[in-house]
Amino acid sequence: MQFKFKRHQQVILKSRPHLDYTEWYEDPQPIKPGTKGKINLILSNGKYHVQILDKDGETIAYAAMDEEQLESA
Questions:
Q1: Cystine design at 41: which of 4, 12, 15, 49 (Cβ 3.0–4.6 Å)?
Q2: How many domains, in total, are found in the chain?
Q3: Rounded-to-integer distance, Cα 52 and Cα 27, Å
Q4: Residue 13, SS3?
């Protein structure tokens, strides 16, 4: 299977992650399109496990996202 992104690559979210597939690191914060993240894992179903970062580079959440929901930073 060919993947567009590699592990630990910086990405930008094009859309909000689905709330059912989002794991908050601490207190839930709004995640908007344009938020930066980093590929944590490539899942066996072809999705990406993304570490979502705030403007200071701190982790706010982890979410499973499709390739279409991400763009390279």
A1: 49
A2: 1
A3: 13
A4: strand
